[in-house]
Amino acid sequence: MGRRRFGIRLSLNARQALWAYVFLLVPMAFFLYIRIWPAFQAFDLSLREWNIVGEVRTYVGGANYERLAGDPRFARALLNTLRYTVVGVPAQIVLGLAIALLLERVTRYRGLLRAVYFLPYMTPIVAAAWVWQWLYSPNFGPLNGFLDAIGMPAQPFLDSPAQALYAVTAVVVWQNLGFVVVIFLAGLQSISRTYYEAARIDGAGARALFLHITLPLLNPSIVFAVVIGTIQYLQLFTQVVNLNFTDQGGPLDSTLTIVLYIYKVAFQRFQMGQAAAATVVLFAIILSVTLFQLKVLSRRIEY
Amino acid sequence: MLRITRLPGLALMLVALALLPAAAQQVTITYWQYEYATKVEAINTLIDQFEAENPNIRVVHETFPYDAYNQRVAASVPAGRGPDVINLFYGWLPLYIDSGYLQPLPEDTFPPEEIERDFAPMVRAAKMDGRYWALPTAVRTLALFYNKDLLAEAGLDGPPKTWDAFLQAAESLTRRSGNRFQRLGFGVAPTGQDHHLIREVLFRQWGVTPYSEDGRRVTYDTPAGTEALEFYTDWITKQKIGVANFFPGDSGYREAFMQGLAAMIIDGSFAVGSIRNGARVNWGVAELPVGGPTNERSNFGSFWAHGITRNARGAKLDASIKFLKFITSESAMRYWLDTVGEIPARAALAQDPALASDPVFGPFVASLPYAHATFFVDEAGQRQVLVDAVNEVTLQGVAPETALERAAQREQQILDDFWSKR
């Protein structure tokens, strides 16, 4: 009674929670200011015309989106990004799973082999891309040397509008593979041996074991690998830039991605509004694809 | 006693008072350029000279990585900071002028007729709305770099003077097995300098002026223009004297030349430094070959120019004008040539006999009177248009006529976009 005239009486738990919030506030404010606020600014910028140097940012309504819709290069970037994703994600999931299953079986040098597969993932992307440029070179590259040796015609790879996108995808898959393998190895280890033993007693073959035990129980790992992989491919940039450094996204826009399109429009051509509009479109695509994947793919997790 | 001890103090005060007006007039201006070791050193030395001549002006010199240049400027604008005098690629000038970032050069200190009399003609690319907005210390032109030993091996006693001789030499020097090249007769580089070669050299030699006088219309889409483009793409598709991306990398054509794997390349005077340091071959420089129906000489010129920003007001503006005058003077240009190895922007120096007979810089200097600087409104976009036209022909077998028509339409769109916003 009147022992505390001012202030609210709080339980110990509530007080602890309050302090937690106070401490969380600082990183939260930082995050809001550094990440969330600029995102909103990008929305605002997509409705304006700005050439990066000027002070005036004229409001133009939907004009940037209209220009985007009418730009064949943007359409090409969208289509290419879709191609990268549709080819790259399944390729790295299937290869990653196959390698993880094989690594599970070997008992000798497993750690070493795992490291070997993970190595490309740790290599700086730019350095790897420049080495791949030489590997792919029509005139000096060992790949064409090999083709030449077995009597096949030399291939242009990165210099061909028809082959370049797949050549780039192969580099990205090669680089991401180690990461996917590690995810699957962790997933495989979490499946209890008892399921397999029980199934074997019931007379299940290797195929049945894989289809009815491994695959379903690995589903959370697969969903994770698909979602992360898709986001990686939707944001593809560094490999593409460095694999054809003098004609980025070329030849003839055949390797152009959405993010590279945004970069070129913003920082080489200084049309910030249009670049911001493309960013908003990319944001919408990533958001909807991820939501869709999480909903559809994770459905079968419950057993 | 008291009087005596006070005397030195009084004297000091008087001295201080005498110095006060000078100290008040002390003005500091900021100069920006991109980071390039020899240029940074050269400007530092020039600043020391300038400050010695103008004790009341202090120049702060700041540099930025080339790749982030425009972003840095953009970031400095809202903050109200940034340079008073700035070094810009001439192709960015329209962007900076339209943004209100630059102020026109005062006509009393820099009369346009004097600029046009004294400077290389390409400097006119810095003129917009009838006024000059920036001036260069040095300019660049293109030339033919050739491997002396290889040309001698092909039976030539000097560099080719015509495109016919050039083609003959290139064809005989190319080494190929199947569709793989071991050595190029010519280091093809559409993304390097070759798009400039097509635009300002080949088109003009085929009698085509690439753009209208006011820079608003693309005028190269003509039958003669098609022939000029085809003349170039034939090097890749018919005569097969070279291939793009022979050496992967940033400037692979230059690397290949320095390794002796490309007999000839076309490159800018800015490449002299790297080639001098890196070439393992016996090389020479020659003016670009003549040819085409007109049989005339033509060249592409470009430059980095110094402009005065809107930050410079009052005393700072006066100091900036003085500084600009100083770094575009004849003596500064001579110093620049000696230290940085870039050719001077003033025509008078180009006629300097010592310079004209220089085996390396001579051909670049000789090209000054007939070098055209394209009036770019969107340099990256316009470059892409012509690179794509070449790739359409060489990689996809599109007819040169169609490729050029598409290029003209795309580039016209870029020009229209720019001029409609003004």
From TrEMBL, chain B:
Transmembrane segments: none annotated. Coiled coil: none annotated. Residues 1-24 form the signal peptide. One of its GO terms (biological process) is maltodextrin transmembrane transport. One of its GO terms (cellular component) is ATP-binding cassette (ABC) transporter complex, substrate-binding subunit-containing. Keywords: Signal, Transport. Pfam families: SBP_bac_1. InterPro entries: SBP. GO terms for molecular function: maltose binding. PANTHER family: MALTOSE-BINDING PERIPLASMIC PROTEIN (PTHR30061), MALTOSE_MALTODEXTRIN-BINDING PERIPLASMIC PROTEIN (PTHR30061:SF50). Belongs to the bacterial solute-binding protein 1 family. This is Sugar ABC transporter substrate-binding protein. It comes from Limnochorda pilosa.
